[in-house]
Write a structure and sequence with these properties.
The structure is a single chain. By secondary structure, this protein is α/β, with parallel strands linked by helices. It contains twelve helices and twelve strands. The strands form three sheets. A seven-stranded mixed beta sheet has the order 3-2-1-4-9-6-10, with helices on both faces. Strands 5-12-11 form a three-stranded mixed beta sheet, with no helix packed on it. Helix 7 links the parallel strand 2 and strand 3. Helix 1 packs antiparallel against helix 2.
Length: about 350
């Protein structure tokens, strides 16, 4: 079986790791998978040249010879992550506002009820809890991100909503479930162009967040190479007509590398830059959270599993301090959950009755 040292650079190194880790299980498929990845390497080199031109001579020197994602050993892996997080070399670049944590709330044009519920509950608590310093810098800031749609009336409503609340960011991308994997890098690209954040958190708009426990969550983070969420291990790559099928990935890939559930993740700034402009050709995936696992897999990234994240809701009485976030919460349930937490009550069901 192939090893990473036998595969040249970037995605080929990722294939080698998958072979060693048991993600690719049939030796007969190894050569085919390697050839597919080798084709991507040639495309990756073109992408790296574009990145080098954008980031300047310093970035170019950092990634020179790495052929995309570096081999998964500390010196070369560090070079690519450092290059991805390096600021542009131009001294004319204006200083960005600083944030300890920037929160991406991934939404879409038609989810106005979800945004309204979040604004009235945990987002309001976030704003009231973390005030600006003397220089106008917030410790934590949250923004809703939506893609554009061709319907002018819908977009007009979005622009009215933005003028009213000043918390919407519209990206030039057509939203859809099957295109989430393509949208996510754009979310991080837009974020790093706007703020200088130590950490970037991404949540779905139907995720309720327990703001009071965020300090304990951030205390587990390190300034670099840290990826937090509820880690999913050994998840099968689905095929066929399933809504989460990944039919464009090599057939020899049977399981994903470890990744965090996409409803709630926090990453350090260097990884946000890596996601914003990945040094590999972006894979058009349905499962945007699994893309994190694939992109980070060749690097020495510390994965921190936060078991207080509940991706599928809560159906038994759970103390508030044992909850960081709950996914799949109907908008009508947001106020009840926030009320329970404020009164010190447990949360017993996040979907039915919001008890």
């Amino acid at each position: 079986m192939a090893t990473p040292s036998q595969l040249a650079g970037g995605m080929a190194a990722l294939v080698g790791l998958m072979l060693l880790g048991g993600f690719i299980t049939h030796e007969a498929s190894d050569q085919q998978a390697t050839e597919e990845m080798q084709r991507d390497i040639r495309r990756n080199r073109d992408l790296l040249e574009e990145l080098a031109a954008e980031r300047g001579a310093t970035h170019s020197a950092s990634v020179s010879g790495t052929h995309g994602v570096a081999a998964p050993v500390a010196p070369r892996g560090a070079a690519v992550v450092a290059a991805a997080s390096a600021p542009p070399s131009s001294s004319a670049t204006p200083a960005l506002p600083r944030r300890r944590l920037f929160v991406i709330i991934n939404s879409y044009v038609g989810a106005e009820a979800r945004r309204r519920a979040a604004r009235a509950t945990w987002v309001r608590t976030l704003k009231n809890t973390y005030q600006a310093d003397a220089d106008g810098n917030l410790a934590i800031e949250a923004k809703f991100f939506v893609g554009s749609v061709p319907d002018k009336k819908q977009m007009d409503k979005i622009y009215v909503e933005q003028r009213t609340f000043q918390d919407l960011i519209v990206i030039d991308f057509h939203d859809g479930y099957s295109t989430l994997g393509e949208k996510v890098p754009l979310l991080y690209r837009e974020t790093i162009s706007r703020v200088n954040a130590t950490y970037v958190m991404k949540v779905d708009d139907d995720t309720w967040v327990n703001v009071g426990v965020l300090p304990s969550v951030l205390a587990r983070m390190k300034p670099t190479r840290t990826y937090m969420g509820l880690m999913m291990e050994g998840m099968e790559v689905l095929r066929g007509a399933h809504k989460n099928a990944e039919n464009k990935l090599p057939q020899s890939m049977k399981h994903f590398p470890p990744y965090a559930s996409g409803c709630f993740t926090i990453i350090s700034a260097d990884l946000a830059h890596l996601l914003a402009k990945p040094p590999i050709v972006p894979i058009k995936m349905v499962n945007d959270d699994a893309f994190f696992g694939i992109l980070f897999f060749p690097f020495q990234v510390e994965r921190v599993s936060e078991k207080r994240i509940h991706p599928w809701g809560v159906d038994r009485c759970t103390p508030a301090e044992a909850i960081v976030g709950i996914h799949y919460v109907p908008p009508t349930c947001f106020p009840k959950l926030s009320h329970n937490v404020s009164q010190g009550f447990p949360i017993c069901n996040s979907k039915i009755g919001c008890a």
